[in-house]
Every structure is written in C-alpha cells, then in structure tokens.
Amino acid sequence: MTQVPASIEKTVALLAGADYVADRSLATVLFLALRMGRPLFLEGEAGVGKTELAKVLAKTLDRPLIRLQCYEGLDISSAVYEWNHAAQMIEIRLREATGSAEGDALRSDIFSERFLIRRPVLQALGGEPGRAPVLLIDELDRTDEAFEAFLLEVLSDHQVTIPEFGTIRAAEPPIVVITTNRTREIHDALKRRCLYHWLDYPSAERELDIVQRKAPGAGADLSREIVAYVQKLRAADLFKAPGVAETIDWATALTELDALALDPQLVSDTLGVLLKYQDDIARIEKGEGREMLNAVKRELALG
Amino acid sequence: MSWQAAPEGERPGGQIPANVVHFAGALRRAGLRTGPAETLDAISALRLGGVGSREDFYWTLHAVFVHRHEDGPVFAEVFAAFWRTRQMIEKMIALFSGRAPARPAERKAGGRRADEALSDGLPPRPARQDKPILDVDARFTVSADDLLRSKDFAQMTASELEAARRAVQNLVLTGDERRTRRLRPHTRGERIDLRETLRASARTGGDLLLPHWRTAQRRPPPLVVLADISGSMSQYSRLFLHFFHAVTARRRRVHTFLFGTRLTNVTRELSRRDPDEAVDRSAAAVRDWSGGTRIGEALALFNKDWSRRVLSEGATVLLITDGLERDDTTLLEREMKRLHLSSKRLVWLNPLLRFDGFAAKAKGMRAMLPHVDEFRPVHSVASLEALSAALSGARAGPAPRSPRDWLRDVAEA
User: What percentage of residues in chain A have a pLDDT greater than 70?
Assistant: First the structure.
C-alpha cells in the first residue's frame, strides 16, 4: 500500500490502522498535504505526537523514513551532502603518481557522483516514483535562520544545487513533515510553503483511546483515572504540562507496578514520570494533587 | 462525497472561487498574512474533492490560510461571520452530511478584528498623540545637545522630546557578538576547510594543495525587552519604544514585550519601517497603556508563555520598570528568580535610579535586586547611550555598582 489516501475518512482510517488516533482537523490537513504535495508544518507543545505522525506515515504508506534531527549549527555538510575528501585526495595523489592529472578532467572527476556523500535531505530527493520517502525535519526551531533559508529551495522546488556538480532534482518529491516546539518563531517565508497545523493536547475521549491502544496492560478503570488526572493537570497552569507521551509512559509505569487504581501515595511516587520541573512537582505534591485526585474519583464515580 | 455532488450552479467552478477570494480579503483585513498564493491553494484544495462537511470545509481553509497558532481564533471568527452572512455555504453543506461545525462557543479575542474586517472600513487607526508645536527656547541653541543628553525625559518639553527621539534613533547596539557553532571561511581560521581546499586544488589540476580555513561565526545574542508601561512609567514609555524600534531595525532577534496589568508582545508592530507608525501600532496593540501594574504576574506570564520561545541561545534581557509592586512580592521574587535562571544576562533599567539619595527601600525592589546581573538608570539620552555602550561590551566609564550593593546600603541604614 503505497498510494496516498483518497479522502479525509480514509486518512483517519489509515492513521487509526497504525494506532495513531487523529482528530478530523489533523486528518484534513494531512490529507491536503499529501494530495497537494506540500510539506506539513506541525507546531505544538512537546509530547503531543508530532514526530510520531511522521513515523506512522512512513510505516502505513510503506515508505522509508528519513529523519533530519535539527540542532544549533546544523549546516549543509551534515544535512544535505558532503564530498568524500579523503577519497578525493587519494584520487589526486593517484593521478599525480600515474601522471594523468589533467586540469579540467580532474576537476569533473573529483566532483562526481562517486565522491558525493548523501546526507538526509539529498537522500530524500532520491526516491523512485511511487516510493518517495517521508522526510522528517524534526525540531526545526533548534537550527538558525541560515538553515531555514536554505530549506526554501528544497521545499518549494524539491531540488538542491551543488556548485561543483549541478542541480539535483527529485523525480518524485518526498513527503515532508516539519515539526517545531516553538522555542523560536519560524520565518513566514518558510511557513507559507507549507500547510500549517497546530497540534493540541487531545480531548479526554481521544486520549483514552490512545492510552488503551498504546498501554493495553492498564485496566479500563485505571486508564480512565489516568486520563482524567492528566487532563486536570493540564488545566492546572503548570510550567510544563504533561504531553500524551507522558500519559502513555505513566500508564505503562503504573501497569508495571501492578496498580489497579490511583491512590495518593502511588501518584506521589510516580509524579516524576508526568512532570519534569521541580516547581511543578512540589506544587502538586503539596496538596493540589490530592484534591485533583479526589475530584477525579468523584467525577468517575458519578459516571 | 465531493463538490461534484452539488446541484448545477453551485459547483466550485461557479461561486466558490469568487467567495474564496472575498473570504481571503476578509482574512487579510482581519490581520492575517495571506496573499494570492494562499487563495489559489484554497481553491485547489477545495477542488481536491475531499470536502464533505462544514467541519472539513473549515479545516481545509484553515490548513491553507493559517500560518500561526495565534491566527487561529481570528480565522474562526472570520469564518463564522463570513460564511454565515453569505449563507451560501450553509445551503451547500445542508446537501451533505450535517456535522456540527467546529465553531468556538463564544466570541473570542479575534471577534472585534473579524467584525472590522467584514465591515468594509479599515479598523480605526489610533490617533497620534498630539505634539503641540512650541517655540524653541533660545537658550538651548548654544549647547542644546549636551543639555538634551542629560535632561530627564520626564521634564522635557514636546520639542525636546522630539529631539531626544531623534538622538535615540541613532543609538546602535553592536559588538556583543558571541561565538556560534556555525563556521565561515576565514583567512586564518581554526579548522581546515577541506572542501574549499580541494576545490582550489582542482583548479590548479591538483598541483597545489594549499589549506583553506574556517572559523566560528559570531553574532549577537537575542535581545529581549520587558518594559513596564504603567502609569508611573508613562512619561518614558513612548521614548523607549522609539529606542527599541531603532534597535529592532538594526539588529536581528529583538523581542519586545510591554506590560502593565497584562503582557503584550509588540515585536511585530515594532518591525514596521517607519518609526512613528511602529510606535503608534505598538501603542494601539496595548490595551492597558498607563494603567496599573502587576510586575509579578506579568513576569509569570512571560515565563510561562514566552521564555522558552525567546530566551534560547543565551539571550540578554532588559527589564524596564520602577519596581514599585503593590501586591504581595512572593510571586514577584519567584518569577524574577526563574527569569534570571533562564536568561544569560538580566539587566534592570530603573528610571528612579537617577535621583540622588535613591535607596532600594521599596519591597518590590528588594525582591527583585538579588536576581539581576546589572542595575542601571534609564531616564535620559545619556543613560541610554551608556546602556548601548554596556551592551556593546565597551567598558567606557566606571563600572556600575553591583545590584547587591544597593541592598547592603538599605540594610546598613
């Protein structure tokens, strides 16, 4: 199955088939991105499933996943291509030794396909028709503007220009997913070339579905309590609210501890799975957490 | 289901493109940045035939027109208003499955802008503050510059303020560059540039293998300004805005926030080229101009919503406030501590510091002082010049006192 889905319904079904529970808005934008051949720009808090979407996409569409993890100082030679300098140098010495070093011929030989090392972006442009890879440009906000500007050519024309070699153009454009955590603003020029979507925390209903798929070991009652508690935490105005990834981790952790229901001691012992800032943990442990737990129990008892 | 199922006359080939064009215009008037490219995209997205309900219709247009999370509510309002008034889409959607449209329950922040965008008139431009024309005092013509430089903003006449504004526009912040991890070619660098070496070598047919070098690029860190615009600071606010406009124009990655009882990000407004327009727009963006102030709460908001977005890569923070907090200072102290931890250099600019015999007695000040790296006056062109020099790394003049010394003074007194 390498065809892109033909409707929004099919997109939802496709993702659900890989245990990714998407709401309608995400399915719509993903469907459009696939059909229009546009990069999908996903923004949202950490742990809402941005990276996961790209992985699931590669799996369900049966395409290779090429991941470019961004970081400060990321440059062309580690993101796009590099020349194999050692091999080039050996080649030059060999030619010298055999006395066949002709200026122009040497230049075109040295800078040929043979010495080109393909990094993620260039690899992504090399897909065959119908099998173009999924290119995940993860946490783009970690790089600098210079790299962003470079991406413009790749994203709109699906090509890379190598001065010594020429322009390499994709036979079939890759499926591009860009994610950011909003640690800085991405330039409008780049966003315009993409379809934008803000990935929010899921609703309680959807999150329960996710927990049941991803942590099936947790019983039905426990899962409901977990989701209700996490949803309460998110509403509590913390410095860093727990993401879906944390919910799944928590559910898995509680399953490992053979828990059947939440109790104050259990929550307090495992709070580090959910919250990653000392201020937040202290605040929840101080009593706010207990109130929340009581509220969760009450609400669930009422049905 | 697709648009092809629509009855004759209401196909996308007919009214849809025209309506999408009008809709794009409405969005543009409401402040979204969309151009013809988005409009074309929207029409082709609708033609893809995947739109079966009002909700899908909504998210299809959303995917194409919205590029920023902040624009979401505005889009929702314009969408609701536009497609309601025309009633065109309602009729069409009624032919398909009747799914409840994804509409916000109540009118949100974007409501007013949406209304303005749909009524044909532009949103009312904020009235410029009247600048009374005054006769220039002859005494200032001799050494007006010197007097002007040291004169307190609060005591300036309108024409002097105008002159100060021009002086402030010429202040530049440069020279506080830091090493980045990106390399650039350099004649005497620290690392061999193999690629350039080989290219040069190939040019000579491989005869010469002369090393080329690269070195780390340097660039200024982000600058984040948090300025108090409450009543007690209002004589300074507009002038500071001019200063930040000048800085924003000359330097990349400058983020400006204004706060009184709420926090407003005016970075985009200040990036307008014309200084008066930029300052007017910033002033218009702020709802609580010259109102009260809650420093602790404003900082808490900043720490929660913005610090991770604008304080990356070792940002310098300029906090401008008189530090006169009326509320309880526990929150203020906690948030100052967090701000200090997340910024590389935190400079507090306080106009009260100009007074002789100033003592950090106010409770708010005592809560803030332990958590700043520098404490400086900011009330005249000269003090802004000194600030520029300090930020540029030039150590002109005596070093300012350590913030903790002020606290010691109070303790000893």
Answer: 97
**pLDDT (average), residues B316-337:** 87
pTM above 0.80, yes or no: no
Confidence of residue B325 (pLDDT cuts 50, 70, 90): confident
pLDDT at B87: 56
Residues B107-113, mean pLDDT to the nearest whole number? 53
pLDDT at B118: 60
H or E segment at A116?
Answer: strand A116-118
Name the percent of chain B lying above pLDDT 90. 8
Report the residue from B67, B201, B204 with minimal CB separation from A196. Answer: B67
Phi, psi of B104 (to 5 degrees): -65, 150
Mutation for B interface: A36, A117, A196, A277, most B CBs within 10 A: A196
Tell me which of B409 and A152 has the higher pLDDT.
A152
Residue B144 in contact with partner chain A when CB distance is under 8 A? no
Q: Predicted ipTM? A: 0.73
DSSP secondary structure, B206-243, as one string = TS-----EEEEEEEPPPEEEEEE-SGGGHHHHHHHHHH
Strands lying side by side in the sheet with B191-192: B178-186, B213-219, B191-192
pLDDT given at position A134:
95
Which phi-psi region, left, alpha or beta, contains residue A157 (left: φ > 0; alpha: ψ -120 to 50)? Answer: alpha
Residue of B223, B174, B144 whose CA lies nearest to B381 = B144
Residues in chain B: 413
What whole-number distance in Å separates Cα of residue B155 and Cα of residue B152? 5
Q: How far apart are CA B285 and CA B229, in angstroms?
A: 12
List the single best residue of B97, B195, B267 to mutate versus A (max A Cβ within 10 A). B195
Please give the pLDDT value at position B401: 72
- Round to whole Å and give the CA distance between A41 and B149: 49
Determine, for residues A83 and B195 on separate chains, whether the beta-carbon distance falls below 8 Å.
yes
B270 burial type by CB count under 10 A (0-12 exposed, 13-18 middle, 19+ buried): buried
Indicate the SS3 state at residue A125. Answer: coil
B67 near A CB under 8 A: yes
Q: What is the mean pLDDT of residues A79-86?
A: 91
- What is the maximum alpha-carbon separation in chain A? 90
Interface size A-B, in CB pairs within 8 Å, comes to: 119
Q: Per-residue pLDDT for B375 more than 90?
A: no
> Alpha-carbon distance A134 to A298, whole Å?
46
Interface of B with A in 22-51 (CB under 8 A): 33, 35, 37-38, 41, 44-45, 48-50
- Taking the Cβ of residue A76 and every Cβ of chain B, the question of whether any pair is shorter than 8 Å is answered with no
- Tell me the two tokens of residue B323: 């530090």
CB of B406 closer than 8 Å to CB of B382: no
* Number of other CB atoms surrounding residue B413 within 10 Å: 7
Q: What is the pLDDT of residues B117-135, one digit of tens each?
A: 565 444 444 444 444 444 3
Rounded Cα distance between A198 and B83, Å, is 23
Helix B54-65, helix A24-36: angle, nearest 10: 60
B173 within 8 A of B392, measured Cβ to Cβ? yes
Residue A86 CA to residue A169 CA, distance in Å, equals 27
> Contact B63/A88, CB-based, under 8 Å?
no
B131 phi and psi angles, rounded to 5 deg: -110, 100
Does A111 sit within 8 Å of B64, measured CB to CB?
A: no
Residues 6+ apart with CB under 8 A from B355: none
Q: Pick the range with the lowest mean pLDDT from A61-75, A131-145, B162-176, B197-211.
A: B162-176
pLDDT tens-digit map of A229-239: 999 999 988 88
pLDDT at B33: 84
Is B313 an interface residue toward A (CB < 8 Å)?
A: yes
